[in-house]
Here is the input.
Amino acid sequence: MANIIDYVQWRGDIPLAQVPFGAVDALVLSYLSYMPFDGLVPEPFETEGPLLSEAAAHFLEQGLSGTCAIDNGQLDCRLLEALRDSERFGTMRLTGYVSRFDRETEEQFSAITFLPPQGPALVAFRGTDSSVVGWKEDFNMSFSIEVPAQGAALDYVVRASSALERQMILGGHSKGGNLAAYAGIFAPEDVQERIRCVYNFDGPGFNEALLETPQFRKMDMRIHTFVPQTSMIGILMWHAEPFIVVKSDGVGVLQHNPYSWQVMGGRFITLPERTRESRLAEETIKNWLADLSPEERKRFIDGVYSVLSVSDGRNVADLFEAKNVRAILHAVSSMDEETKNAIADAFRRLGSSLRETLPEWVESTAGQIRTMITQRSEKESE
Here is the structure.
């Protein structure tokens, strides 16, 4: 089956003027926002940046790949090679690169803008990286009206609209999709008029309070949310817009990886609905969140983060190093009773939600894995 690399190779010689921008194009550029453009792409929109073909060549020469939480090193190289040689993508200018990481304010934010020779600009927001802070900010969305990255995304779109004077398409993968949707929803009316559409690729939704705002009701029909059939990330929290389900050749949460999304011709291969595993996961998480007030969610998430942050681990993987495990265990034993009780109560309620759906989820997941193994074995024997 074809993926976004095959798409760039196949459609790379067709300019946007001939075949307009589509959802697969948006995923390619949204994924590129994970690349470390520091020192290569200017932040001011008024300063001309490099062509995408030049940036791709630079990354290949330096042996650099993306900062995505998923390790895609070899696939990134293949994608960059295709982009370097592509007329459709390579002729785009890059500008407006911003990357911020602030442990104190719990912010992880990055964005970049792609400028084709003509037509709308694509504003792409980076998703969650592997940092503990990045994951903490994601969880803060469950109780906060606005987390720092969402405010930064809104400010970024307003500045881009003023500086570029052209229509815009907003996009992002994972948390980046949430940021794109947030910026589109809450942008001033004059800026919204320039937003052609918003692409949210398996990005989480919003808490209940945001869905009730008049801004959300007015904007949501221009938000196109794509999720893989066994989505575990994009189904988090609440969406008002419908899902477009994309076929993935990954298993479980690994379907979050954009390289697993299947493409035929110029479009995603879509399915009529998500798998039972995804629907069960959505039901479990929503039942759990509905059982916790915003204040209880905050107390639980802040409590867990306070324990994890005592370690030297900046990235999630670092938390499992022996010295960091010891620091975390010590922090747990030193935690005050009120926080301990809040965390224990939240986990108890999560356990209650899981007991209702876990047996069916395990059975369904096992069945899916057996089916995929059988299919691959049949292909290998042909």
